[in-house]
Inverse folding.
């Protein structure tokens, strides 16, 4: 029985979305369970000199004495409506500071991945088509080094070099145009390194394919063969690699970099929240980021399959 | 036959670095190709025939470290000494090549018409319209049905035999003087093989090309070649006209090969005699004739001295000491002087 | 039937290497092994190697740059804000950094391997649940979840060792499962089954030794991954806490003095980078050889 591509793709999407939803529910559940078991949230609301009576009363008022599953359903219901509780630190809905911090994170992450994509792809292709040369070996080593060092440390190194010693760039700051340079550079180097390694490998593998030799036997110069044949075949893989790297970046490294550079984004906010023990905000942030990452996962996966089918209908 | 050859390979030596040192895949091979001649290079896997072909066009990729010595003379130039740019004027234009596996020889994401037109546009500088017209002609020439419909199709929509025709079209697009067919039919079904061989023969005549056919299949040699060079372990074992080779040849290796071909005029109880031993591939320092361990005629001289290609007549040579000492041929009646048609019972 | 995938980034393809003439690879490998060895030795014998007591304060000498000579002697990497010798602190930090890294990796490896092997071998619901769990995790920003978990549970070494393995076990599970599925259909497993071996025995005696090569490379790479994660968590304040010392924590502590004493932050990070780099280089070497042989 033959299905048209659109319905099977549609089913695929639904399947993925369903899986993603399951994942998120699981995560929220786990977090909630832990918070329930470990934390004693009422203590954050109570003044230091509260008596046990006061605490019991607070528990009742805030609903913390209800059975677990009722609390969870309540919480989850609130989530769906966008209610993540109230920030313990600021006394406003937890979701607000996150929304305010979002643009900064989007800006930094996009510039970061753009730089990483450019550096990694171009470098990777150049290295992949000339294996064993000095350029290849050196850039290879540098890339391995870049993915071996702690990314936040790399940011600190850049700060020391450019901001402290040379004094040409600011250490932090958002509204200052130059403030974005160093964090973007850090992200670009770290993720560019990994992209480089993958692109190099993929490109090299492509050059070992027979059709490359056949094209050369026709008297076509190697650079031309790379441009018109190798890149077209490897291009999809390169693009999806950059996509996956963006997902990985949003999974944590972007946030550590925000912290290092005091970049007012979601990551910085969450780390501050962790320090201040402002759990509602932290929880909200993790869940929202989780939604983003799961969605991005699906998008990249989907995108690569669609493009793959279009370009290679084998 | 004293006319200047179109292509001459002189003492070609090709080595590759491996973990155990340099390996000589081709160790001193020479032959000549006249204009419009069809030469076959035959041997078992690993004897160096494909490496020889790749060396003519210097098609080893950027990742392969290879050392090539000797000379490949074409149009008064040594191809091995040309710059990369100059080689681009030889490949595809003067010398074309057809490869073994049609399923991987074509770029999977580029329409076949474009792949054929590539070299036409690049070398002959045709504009797109003219190139497309020429491509259609070529598709017709190699026997692709419905060229107008199929010119923009992707390779995967063609069968193996059709794809090989496309590869041939690519190779002859600019009208080369030499066509090298490296195991061009090995990956194809037997019936398709015959079609492709016929196509190659037809094209050769129509386009006045010289042909180098590289294969391990003696049937292919019989169908296409005028002269044959038999290779063993990186060196030439025998060079002769195809008729003589098919009758059994003079070199013990050639004779061994021919004994393996079942023949219609043999008794059906006739047993094929395989050649003892296994083929030699990696050669470090070898003393004496390379075939000696497997040769039924070998004597002390063979184990000590390596014979070069010794002439047996005009355009006939054999790398074997039997040329100089024919009396040494083993008296075993199962041995040489194979008579076609004679019934050979196993005693 | 294959478990549905939410899909994460595909595993990096085996690195195609065209290395230099045969021979250079060997020397380079030993270099990295030696470097790593130095750190391992420092981890075990830290107390003996450290020139000074890491806790010995001398506020007079605070924040001295590297190669300063004080009354106590030469401080190769300078001193921290309380006058303590930086080098000694770094050596002290080696032990916990490596320990946590290795231990967490070991736990993650064992858990991941067991789940993966069981999933591949038994199939059915074991497979489905196991892989669902693994994929669910891969699709989540685990680093963030780790931050959340640690701030809930309270930062400590124990909690770190519990949380860190969650970062790596899915990778192991996935690969081990794939290999198990592949091996399961080979003849010798069937033979073992015919001889009456139980599933557990088969897994232990046949599957796992065959997988050892793959596991080995993955373990090596994971150690680096885990160490970087620990450093990150400690740096962010949700990992190791004083008086326990790891390099990640040292980086964090030195950060506020970045403008005046950059070496306090940079040098511990440099060491961490070197350790992970040597681990990665060793891992790549084996990966290449594995591809060639297997």
């Amino acid at each position: 029985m033959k299905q048209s591509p659109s319905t099977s793709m549609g089913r695929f999407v639904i399947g993925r979305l369903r899986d993603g939803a399951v994942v998120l529910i699981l995560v929220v559940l786990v977090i909630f369970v832990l918070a329930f078991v470990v934390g004693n949230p009422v203590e954050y609301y109570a003044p230091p000199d509260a008596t046990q009576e006061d605490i019991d009363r607070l528990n009742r008022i805030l609903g913390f004495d209800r059975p677990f599953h009722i609390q969870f359903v309540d919480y989850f219901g609130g989530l769906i409506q966008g209610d993540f509780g109230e920030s313990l630190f600021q006394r406003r809905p937890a979701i607000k500071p996150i929304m305010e911090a979002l643009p900064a994170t989007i800006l930094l992450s996009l510039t970061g991945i753009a730089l990483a994509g450019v550096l990694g792809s171009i470098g990777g292709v150049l290295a992949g088509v000339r294996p064993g040369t000095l350029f290849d070996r050196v850039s290879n080593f540098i890339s391995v080094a870049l993915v071996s060092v702690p990314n936040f440390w790399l940011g600190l190194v850049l700060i020391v070099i450019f901001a402290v010693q040379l004094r040409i760039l600011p250490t932090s700051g958002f509204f200052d145009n130059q403030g974005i340079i160093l964090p973007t550079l850090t992200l670009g180097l770290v993720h560019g390194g990994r992209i480089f390694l993958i692109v190099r490998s993929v490109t090299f593998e492509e050059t070992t394919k027979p059709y490359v030799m056949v094209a050369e036997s026709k008297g076509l110069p190697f650079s031309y063969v790379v441009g018109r044949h190798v890149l077209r075949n490897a291009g999809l893989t390169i693009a999806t690699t950059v996509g996956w790297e963006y997902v990985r970046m949003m999974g944590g490294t972007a946030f550590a970099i925000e912290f290092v550079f005091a970049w007012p984004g979601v990551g910085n906010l969450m780390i501050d929240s962790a320090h201040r023990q402002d759990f509602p905000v932290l929880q909200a942030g993790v869940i929202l980021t989780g939604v983003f990452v799961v969605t991005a996962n699906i998008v990249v996966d989907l995108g690569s399959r669609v493009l793959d089918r279009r370009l290679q209908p084998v | 036959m004293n006319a200047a050859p179109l292509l001459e390979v002189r003492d070609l030596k090709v080595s590759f670095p491996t973990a155990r040192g340099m390996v000589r895949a081709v160790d001193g091979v020479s032959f000549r190709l006249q204009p419009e001649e069809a030469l076959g290079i035959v041997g078992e896997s690993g004897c160096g025939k494909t490496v020889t072909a790749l060396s003519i066009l210097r098609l080893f990729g950027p990742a392969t470290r290879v050392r090539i010595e000797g000379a490949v003379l074409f149009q008064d130039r040594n191809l091995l000494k040309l710059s990369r740019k100059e080689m681009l004027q030889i490949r595809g234009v003067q010398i074309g090549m057809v490869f073994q596996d049609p399923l991987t020889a074509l770029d999977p994401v580029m329409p076949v018409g474009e792949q054929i037109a590539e070299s036409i546009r690049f070398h002959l500088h045709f504009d797109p319209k003219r190139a497309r017209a020429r491509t259609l002609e070529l598709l017709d020439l190699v026997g692709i049905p419905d060229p107008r419909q199929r010119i923009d199709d992707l390779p995967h929509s063609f069968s193996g035999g059709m794809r090989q025709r496309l590869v041939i079209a690519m190779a002859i697009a600019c009208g080369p003087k030499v066509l090298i067919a490296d195991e061009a039919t090995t990956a194809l079904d037997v019936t398709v093989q015959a079609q492709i061989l016929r196509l190659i023969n037809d094209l050769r005549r129509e386009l006045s090309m010289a042909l180098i056919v590289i294969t391990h299949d003696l049937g292919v040699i019989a169908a296409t070649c005028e002269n044959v060079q038999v290779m063993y372990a990186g060196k030439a074992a025998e060079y002769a006209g195809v008729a003589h080779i098919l009758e059994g040849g003079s070199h013990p290796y050639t004779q061994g090969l021919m004994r393996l071909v079942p023949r219609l005029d043999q008794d059906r109880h006739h047993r094929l005699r395989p050649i003892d031993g296994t083929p030699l591939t990696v050669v470090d320092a070898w003393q004496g004739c390379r075939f000696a361990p497997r040769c039924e005629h070998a004597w002390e001289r063979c184990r000590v001295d390596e014979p070069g290609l010794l002439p047996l007549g005009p355009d006939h040579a054999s790398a074997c000491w039997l040329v100089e000492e024919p009396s040494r041929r083993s008296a075993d009646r199962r041995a040489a002087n194979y008579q076609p048609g004679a019934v050979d019972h196993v005693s | 039937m294959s478990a549905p995938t939410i899909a994460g980034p595909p595993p990096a393809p085996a690195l195609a290497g065209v290395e230099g003439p045969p021979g250079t690879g060997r020397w380079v490998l030993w270099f990295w092994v030696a470097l790593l060895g130095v750190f391992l030795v420092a981890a075990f014998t830290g107390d003996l190697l450290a020139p000074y007591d890491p806790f010995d304060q001398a506020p007079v000498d605070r924040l001295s740059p590297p190669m300063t000579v004080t009354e106590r002697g030469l401080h190769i990497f300078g001193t921290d804000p309380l006058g303590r010798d930086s080098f000694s602190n770094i050596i002290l930090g080696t032990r916990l950094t490596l320990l946590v890294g290795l231990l967490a990796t070991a736990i993650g490896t064992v858990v991941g391997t067991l789940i993966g092997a069981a999933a591949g071998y038994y199939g059915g619901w074991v497979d489905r649940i196991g892989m669902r769990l693994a994929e669910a995790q891969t699709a989540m920003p685990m680093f963030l979840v780790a931050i959340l978990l640690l701030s809930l549970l309270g930062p400590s070494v124990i909690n770190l060792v519990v949380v860190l393995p969650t970062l790596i076990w899915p990778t192991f599970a996935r690969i081990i499962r794939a290999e198990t599925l592949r091996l399961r259909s080979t003849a010798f497993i069937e033979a073992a089954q015919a001889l009456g071996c139980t599933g557990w025995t088969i897994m232990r005696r046949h599957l796992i030794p065959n997988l050892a090569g793959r596991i080995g490379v993955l373990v090596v790479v994971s150690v680096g991954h885990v160490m970087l994660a620990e450093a990150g968590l400690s740096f962010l304040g949700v990992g190791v806490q004083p008086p326990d010392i790891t390099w990640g924590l040292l980086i964090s502590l030195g950060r506020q003095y970045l403008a005046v004493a950059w070496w306090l932050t940079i040098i511990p990070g440099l060491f961490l980078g070197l350790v992970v780099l040597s681990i990665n280089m060793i891992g790549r070497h084996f990966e290449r050889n594995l591809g060639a042989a297997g």
Observations:
- The domain at 7-225 of chain B is CATH 3.40.50.300 (Rossmann fold).
- Residues 333-347 of chain B have pLDDT under 50 and may be disordered.
